[in-house]
Amino acid sequence: MTTATVPSEGTSASSVTRPVVERGVLSWLRKNLFRTPFDAAVTVILLVVGGNLLAQFLNWSITQADWRVITINFRILMQGTYPADQGARLGLSVALITLLAGISWGIWGKLYRSTAFAFLGGVLLFIFVPLAVESVPELSQDAFGKYLGNQIAPLLSLLRDPVLLLVACLLIGYGVGRFAKQVNRKRAGRYTLIAWLIAIPVCFVLVRGFTDAQGALPFVQTSRWGGLLLTFMMAFVAIVACFPLGILLALGRTSGGTHKLAFKAPPRWWLNPLQWLHALSIWWRNLGNYPIIKLLCIIYIEFLRGVPLVTVFFTANLIVPLALGDNSIDAVLRAMVALTLFEAAYIAEIVRGGLQAIPPGQLEAAKALGLSPVQATLFITLPQALRIAIPPLVGQFITMFKDTSLVAIIGLTDLLGISRAVLAQSDFIGRHREMYIFVAIVYFVFSYGMSYAARQLERSGSGALRKIG
């Protein structure tokens, strides 16, 4: 923001000019990349190194890479051994989730110009590149043309219909959300949350089924789930389940109150057993009104945060059936429960950090208004804590989405596990780079989408509050 300078004595107000603000690409480059000689040197070095790496990657991608390992195995990478004739159920579930995501985006977010251009550029890429290769045979004369015709165009043609359907559902949902927001934002947000709660079990039933082979929704065993489908289902169920469990754990750990008793130790108190009991009683009273609950929450959180996730997966997959004497428990269900219990401990600490960031005056004001402790928590402290904790919460959700790849070590064929199975085929031996680059792109796209959605939510929630404060 520019401000006018105050005129000095002997000068008129009309002679005072505002400072000139430079705009444009050159001004941005000079301000952000070439402000000082050191910045300019770092920029040049990074451009040289990055350009060299990019040139080597493009050369390898055009002359050596064989992306047909993706196009040939695309269906199995997406859904594993899920029945091909039941693929419409998966498409309906994805369309429903995308539509609700668009509605949520329209209510709590905003479609910026850069995002709209990105959508438009992606749609044009998926549509016109295959058409150009088919309509202009002269493109296949050189190496780059052969690369487009044999590698890129088939992949884009394969992805074109699903991508266009998802973009259409997302934009339609965004339009519905914007319209609902204009009518009544509060009611639209409430109904959207209810729709999310209903859509979760509906999608699970659509994917799993519940009838016999001849019914409308034939039952599909979870052992046939694989690829990106299994990754999504595990991450989706774990995120939905661990969030309320983490909140309960955080509330249980912070149930101690603010007033703490101090133990005034007399000289050589450790020689007197009565002083031991006195110190133990003070420690117990400092746990608050619910000491057993708080102690159990502390033990749960600290124990699960102190062990690796791989250990939890192995425990759920091997030790739990031995302890229960029943090996019929579904392996996917065991992995989902293990991931949920593990991540709930981290969510609890994030929410506890948000609760501790709330000024004490908020709770005191709630008590002054006559609110009970439960009402003050539900309507005053917890909503503010969750707004503050949006960035670390989303970061943990992204980590959880990527941690689902660890289930490959216990025999489940998620996206990473199914890619290893594909690379074990004799026709695709040695195509590790192509496969792992594709897997990395998939994880990046969805992780960036979650991060972008969090920034949108933060602008309408905690970010807006920070600007006001």
Q: Residue share in helices?
A: over 70%
* Relevant CATH superfamily of the largest domain: MetI-like
CATH topology type of the largest domain: MetI-like fold
Q: State the separation between the terminal residues, measured CA to CA.
A: 19 Å
**CATH architect. name of the largest domain:** Orthogonal Bundle
Question: Which segments are poorly predicted (pLDDT under 50) over 5 or more consecutive residues?
Answer: 465-469
Radius of gyration: 29 Å
- In total, how many domains does the architecture comprise? 2
Assembly annotation? single chain
Mean pLDDT: 82
Work out the helix count.
Answer: 18
Q: Give the H and E element order.
A: HHHHHHHHHHHHHHHHHH
Shape estimate = globular
Q: Per DSSP, what share of the residues sits in E-state strands of 2 or more residues? A: under 5%
What would you say about this model in short?
The chain has 469 residues and is mostly helical. It is built from 18 helices and no strands.
How are the secondary structure elements laid out?
Blueprint: H1 25-32, H2 37-63, H3 68-72, H4 74-79, H5 87-108, H6 113-135, H7 143-208, H8 227-253, H9 273-286, H10 291-305, H11 309-324, H12 331-356, H13 360-368, H14 373-388, H15 390-403, H16 415-423, H17 432-460, H18 462-468
